[in-house]
Amino acid sequence: MCIGKSPVDQQTGITPVWLTRFARFASFGAAGPVNVLELGGDAAYNLRRMISRIVVAALSSVSALGVTLALAAQQQAAEPYVPRQSDRPVPVQGDEPGFQPIFDGQSLKGWEGDPKYWRAEGGALVGEITPETVIKSNTFIIWRDGRPRDFELKLEYRISASGNSGINYRSVSVPDAVTPGNAFALKGYQFDIDGARRYVGNNYEEKGRLFVGVRGQVTRIVGGRPPVVLSTFGDAPALAAVATDDWNAVHLTIRGNTLVHMLNGRLMSVTIDDDVPNRPADGLLGVQVHVGPPMKVEYRNIRLKTW
Q1: Cα dist. 103→143, 177, 234 in Å?
Q2: CA distances from 229 to 28, 217, 233, 254, 273 (A)
Q3: Distance in angstroms (rounded) separating the CA atoms of residues 119 and 93
Q4: pTM, full prediction
Q5: pLDDT digits (tens, 9 = 90+) for 267-286
Q6: By mean pLDDT, which of 77-81, 106-110, 119-123 is the weakest?
Q7: Rounded Cα gap, residues 287 and 299, in angstroms
Q8: Is the pLDDT of residue 246 over 70?
């Protein structure tokens, strides 16, 4: 006698207790349900065998279907993209994989600048010059958690009508001869930003080679003379009108010696730096408040992808 455990049918692997329960409720004769326990001899034995085979077959089918579906899903996921003649580039929806936020929207964690001019407020990194805090030298807030080399940077900015700012990259900290107490001066490439839209989208090398890329142009820096224009792709005033008085989306793609500036989905400038002795390979990221009248600039949703 087996206590606490039913014997297992050697052919099906199913206990007779479950077979008889199944048969009691699932077997039908001409006059209605048949209780297998009331059957005797060969009839009960044959019915039990038939039911067990049905159950085993059903379980086997379900298992096989699961394996088939899993293999099909794996095969579909593993299939490589094969270009077709009808394919065309498609717009990016949101961020591509790899972008990470570098500003938390609530604090200046990871950033260093003069708190007289910089604060976190309303989800944005805010730089402001008031009549009481007018500056004589440009000053930055600097991201201190890396020195990107090849990267993409995405962010949004909003600037006052009289404001002047910029996004510096591949930059280095330098002494400030005009304002020696300014510990946040930078030298390096800059995506230029201004409320009047005179310079927006240009590539301006702060404290270096100055205007190295101009809106609407593909330029090459050759060293020893002004950069040369390789091509034009847009009208500078028309491209300036891409900037709005509200939030604007900047996208920088910096790979090797090719520096691409985009604004609100439009190409603004492309700079190819072939001036090997003077071009930086990596460096600091920072954003600027500029010499001039009182101003305010805001940055938010700052995301970085490194290569």
Answers
A1: 9, 30, 33
A2: 90, 7, 11, 19, 12
A3: 31
A4: 0.74
A5: 999 999 999 999 999 999 99
A6: 77-81
A7: 9
A8: yes
Question: Tokens 């087996």 label which residue?
Answer: 2
Residue 147 DSSP code: -
Residue 90, amino acid: V
Neighbours of 52 (CB within 10 A): 20
Query: What burial class does residue 69 get, using C-beta atoms within 10 Å of its C-beta: 0-12 exposed, 13-18 middle, 19+ buried?
Result: exposed
Q: Where are the beta strands (DSSP E) in the chain?
A: 28-29, 32-33, 100-101, 111-112, 118-121, 124-129, 139-143, 151-159, 164-173, 186-194, 203-205, 210-213, 217-221, 228-232, 248-255, 258-263, 266-273, 284-289, 295-306
Single-letter residue type at 64: A
Q: Which residues pair with 33 in a beta bridge?
A: 28
Higher pLDDT, 55 or 182: 182
Q: Are 246 and 252 in contact (CB under 8 A)?
A: no
